[in-house]
Amino acid sequence: MSAFQSMLAPTTERPKSQFWSGNRRLNYLRDALHLSTWIAVGALLQSSLLFFFSPQWAVLPTLVYLASRIVDTVLIWKGFKPNPEMTNVITRKVTAQFPGSTTPAEQSLVVIQLAARSNHAVGSFHPYMNAIGKYFERMIDDLEKRSEEFGYLGSKSYLANERTTSNEIMVLVYFRTYEGMHKFSHETGGVHREAWEFWNTVVMGRDSKIGHLFSIMHEAYEIPARHWETIYVNYQPTSMGATTFRVQEKDGSTKWTNPLVDAHSGPLRTSKGRRATTKGDDNDMYKEASYR
Fold first, then answer.
1. How many CA atoms lie within 13 A of 65 on its CB side?
2. Where are the residues of the annotated region Disordered (predicted)?
3. CATH 3.30.70.100 in the chain, residues?
4. Is the pLDDT of residue 32 over 70?
5. How far is the C-alpha of 275 from the C-alpha of 292, rounded, in Å?
6. Pick the CATH number of 108-223 from 3.30.70.100, 3.20.20.140, 3.90.1010.10, 1.20.140.10
7. What's the predicted TM-score (pTM) here?
C-alpha cells in the first residue's frame, strides 16, 4: 500500500500550532465575568451616554451596531457575503495519519492535557492566574522552537464550561513519544520546571494560605499503534488534525506536513478501519454516507 498523502500543501517553515490561533486573551476576559456583569457594564455605558447626550443620540451607537450585525448576518445567510466561519473548513470527511505511514494508526501517540483553574473571588483576574497563563504560553513557545528535540506535534487551548464563569483553561498537547514529553517536563532549567517551582514555592509555599484557591492538573495518555483514530467531517484542521510533521522530501529539502488525509473510501472510512482492524467494510450494512 502506498503512503497516505496529506490533503494540504506542505510548508517550508513550521506553522504555529492551533494554540496561538484566535483571540485567546479576549476570550479569557469574556469568560472571566458573569453574563449579568457584562449586561450591567453595557447598561452603565449606555447610562453614561444618556448623561452626556440627548436620548435619541445616546441610543444611536447601539442601534447602528445591532443594525450592522443583522445586515451582515443576512448577507452571509443569503450568500452575498463570504461566511468567515467557513475559513479553512475542509468540506469532506478526513482523518489524521502520520505522514509516510502506509497503514492506519501505524505509530503510537502521546496526548497530555494541562489545565489550571481559579477558585479565587476575583477569578482569572488574580495575578497568579495571569502568571500561570504566561507559563502556558512560554511552554508552548519553547515546544514550538524545539519541536524535533521533544517530538512535539501541536497543541490547542480550551475553556471549560461547567461553571457560569469557568476561569479554567486547558491545553491539549500532542507528542510522538512519552520519552519526548517526559524530557520536556523534567528538563533542568526548562520552562516546565520553572512553572513547577513557581507553583511549589510561591502559590503553595510563600502564599499557601490562598494557594488552595487555585487548581492545576494534567492527564497523560500513551496510546499504542492501532489504538487511536480520528475523524473530521466539514471541519477546519483542529486538535490532532492541526498538528505538523517534519518530513524529508525526495530532493533533500525539509518540509512541514499536515496529517489530514481523505477518509471517504478504503480502510479510513470506518472507526475500525482507521485502527487497522478491518478493511473499512464493517459499516457496509448501514449504507454509510461517503461524506465526499
1. 5
2. 256-292
3. 108-223
4. yes
5. 21
6. 3.30.70.100
7. 0.89
